[in-house]
Prior knowledge:
The protein is mainly α. It has a single domain (37-142), classed as Arc Repressor Mutant, subunit A (Orthogonal Bundle).
Amino acid sequence: MAETPSETGVLAGRTIFEVLRLAGRLTLAGNDLVGGLGLTAARWQVLATAEEEVRTVAALARSVGLARQSVQRVVNDLAAEGLVALADNPADRRARLVVVTAEGSGRLAQADRLRVPWTEALAEGFTAEELAVTEQVLSRLRARLDRGTD
């Protein structure tokens, strides 16, 4: 017999499905926003994450929450366009490091110039407190999933 869900469990479930719907919309909007720069939402996400810290493809995949094989394909495309380079990894000769090139950093700067007015428009009507709480809750949910509490 199924356990009766708690109010917070029901709300968490509704939040999860809303986040999944939002993720789809953000992907489409991201593709539209940066498509003219030769980027997709996936390329943009991987490139921006790689710029934060030099990492292996596997570490990038864990960071963005995508399959390693998917991120490898994106990295290969970015490397073919000269936006990233693969460098030797002193810790593991088999797992090369993804390094954003100057051209990749320039492309990210262009994407950021497009992103700022877009996110400002999306933020209209929300208070800073609402957005801060939303970010905190989503971050905590992700951290629980990272720990294996699914």
